[in-house]
Amino acid sequence: MATFFTYENMRKELRVKSNEDFQKIITCGKCKTSRSFVMYYYPAEQEHDRIGISVGKKIGNAVIRNKVKRQVRMMIQQLCSFKTGYDYIFIVRAKYLQSDYQNNKKDLSRLYNSVYNR
């Protein structure tokens, strides 16, 4: 399942960017939670998946938040197939900083697979 995808798979059209899209997915979609993440998912309007990542100010300053976003983006590239037919929003919780990269990746994998394999 853990197929490696290059950065090309996270190009701009595969990202949820607008606030309206974020709000639509969060308000109308379903939610799954784990220790480090909250994941919202909603059926995609395009033929490919789109992914949005949100890191709140409780996580830290801008440097730390951008580092966390880069890490989560890399985890998603390695775990996601981008062909499930859903738009996803991943919200990073403050507990993310209390675990290392590998444990957070396992946590994200369990969360994603709980939706993907249902």
Task: List its salient traits.
alpha+beta, Ribosomal Protein S5, domain 2, 20% strand
Give the beta-strand count. Answer: 4
Unreliable stretches = 1-7
N/C terminus separation: 15 Å
- Give the DSSP E fraction (strand runs of 2 or more residues): 15-25%
Helix content: 25-40%
In the CATH classification, which architecture applies? 2-Layer Sandwich
Task: Give the helix/strand class.
Answer: alpha+beta
* Mean pLDDT across all amino acids: 85
List the helices and strands and how they pair.
Blueprint: H1 19-28, E1 30-33, E2 37-43, E3 50-55, H2 62-79, E4 86-92, H3 101-116
Parallel strand pairs: 3-4
Antiparallel strand pairs: 1-2, 2-4
Helix pairs in contact: 2-3
3D structure, described in words:
By secondary structure, the chain is α+β, with helices and mostly antiparallel strands. The protein has one domain: 2-Layer Sandwich (Ribosomal Protein S5, domain 2), CATH 3.30.230.10. The chain is built from 3 helices and 4 strands. It has helices at residues 19-28, 62-79, 101-116, and strands at 30-33, 37-43, 50-55, 86-92. It has a 4-stranded mixed sheet, sandwiched between helices. Mean pLDDT is 85; it is low at 1-7.
Summarize the structure.
With 118 residues, the chain is of the alpha+beta class. It has helices spanning 19-28, 62-79, 101-116, and strands at residues 30-33, 37-43, 50-55, 86-92.
